[in-house]
Design goal:
about 240 residues, Dihydrodipicolinate Reductase, domain 2
């Protein structure tokens, strides 16, 4: 499979290495130094595009790939307020895309466990929730997209919780998220369900970025030769 990379930071380089290990070829790399190479002709040399850039450019990058007719996998966070626009464009162009807040297999398992726990907790009104996420100091968005996905997964199941809030006050209607930026931490997420008699915690600790990179390549393999809008639940058969 031929892969084009948009974004060539630490994640892009790790994705390139894992793709090579899995016998794929990186035929194009687009970064800030060669944006003029981001053309339809060049992108169409790839079977799939993997995009890891920044919140300011992600939407444009993704929609250009869709318009050029090449499936796109994006792990950029901080732009998902426009995700529905991207989905509509993808459907209109009969395209293919997977855009997620985290490609880690372990994190996506945690997403599902959290949803199931929240369904049960909905019947027990004494529990309040809070989330804490810790990342490296280079991370641009706060809270992390993963923390937001955890929060939304719980809010969708627990009717008394109305919203999440960065550094908010924990109560029965608000789920506060605390974002910590520290050294070179790849990513740690903890969601805690608290009652007067006990706490229930789910924690995911990434040891490195390799899980994200591997998940992105697995997503590219899945979307190759498929049409539609997919999620990690499709890949993991959840």
């Amino acid at each position: 499979m031929n892969i084009a990379l948009i974004g060539y930071g630490k994640m892009g380089k790790m994705i390139e290495n894992i793709a090579k290990e899995r016998k794929h070829q990186t035929v194009l790399i687009i970064d800030v130094n060669n944006l003029s190479d981001f053309t339809k002709e060049n992108i169409q040399k790839a079977h799939v595009v993997i995009e890891f850039t920044n919140p300011e450019t992600a939407f444009e990058n993704i929609t250009r790939c869709i318009k050029y007719g090449v499936p796109v996998v994006s792990g950029t966070t901080g732009w998902h307020s426009r995700l529905e626009e991207a989905k509509e464009l993808c459907s209109a162009h009969n395209g293919s895309m997977i855009c997620t807040t985290n490609f880690s297999i372990g994190v996506n398992i945690v997403f599902e466990i959290n949803r199931q726990l929240a369904k049960i907790i909905n019947h027990f009104p004494d529990y309040t929730l809070d989330i804490e996420e810790t990342h490296h100091i280079q991370k641009l968005d706060a809270p992390s997209g993963t923390a937001i996905t955890l929060a939304e997964g719980a809010i969708n199941e627990i009717t008394r919780i109305k919203k999440w809030e960065l550094d908010g006050e924990k109560n029965f209607e608000t789920l506060p998220i605390r974002a910590i930026r520290k050294d070179e931490v790849p990513g740690t997420h903890r969601i805690k369900y608290s009652s007067p008699v006990d706490d229930i915690e789910i924690t995911h600790t990434a040891h490195n970025r390799k899980g994200l990179a591997l998940g992105a390549v697995l997503a590219a393999e899945y979307i190759h030769n498929r049409k539609g809008i997919f999620t990690m639940k499709d890949i993991l058969k959840i």
